[in-house]
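Model it.
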Amino acid sequence: MTTARDTSKDVYRSRVDSRPSLTDRPDPVVWSDLNNPPPGPLTAEQLRTFDKNGFLWLEGLFNEDEVKKYQGELERMSNDQTIRDRPTTVIELQSDEVRSIFEMHKQSEIFKEVVKDPRVSDAARQILGSDVYIHQARVNMKPAMSGGGFFWHSDFETWHTEDGMPRARAVSASVALTENNEFNGPLMVIPGSHRTFVSCVGSTPDDNYKNSLRKQELGVPDAESMTKLVEKYGGITAPKGPAGSVLLFDCNIMHGSTENISPWPRSNVFFVFNSVENTLIEPYAGTRPRPEYIATHDFTPVSEL
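Modeled.
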């Protein structure tokens, strides 16, 4: 592993101390003016809700015909052996099922349309107060009866330590391609937890992503920190609804999901919009940068794709 950088002045120190800690987030959540928001698909009330809770559920944003088109494209890609053999595809540990496909918007014109859709990309611009680029894009699948879970984590903790994202100025959009219900492993969030940064313990080896994409063990909170977060912010919720719905959530909100042991599959398209004013530098963990398909250094704005 390479030598770690000096993190003494890092406001988001993680994986460098012997004990975890909880600190107040120093960055805004909504970077545009909440009293005079820029034009876009989100109302002022929706922006305030996002600012308060760290997430926003937009039910039925995409219509039935759009969803069917995206479902068909996902099925095609999942069954394409050429795509399955690429490093951008992650297979479940316990089965031969596809867990994730990264950079699907670079492998499919149909999914590129979703990235550029102003109902989503313009919402990200409103929240981040600038133009945006795609830091990461993937589709997460949880096959019926066998889909693996994702342990509690803050995405930003990983993007900061392993990718070199300087500030908490990114937002994720999860587009449901199947119904998300209480049984098929929906995303769970702790409303308000985006206001607290949880530092984690444990040094980060190079190429940690090779294991973490299947089962994340570094960059996850300890039980005591999780208990404090839930007690401080009042509980856990799991936004649920029909296919075509979109969950916007802040990069630092604590979230996770359980295994899918139901007979209903769950598939979500997942885009990370980062501000063009928050581009990546060297990873704060001192490790080699993760591959481009996981954390791109192509900062081309979505508007120019």
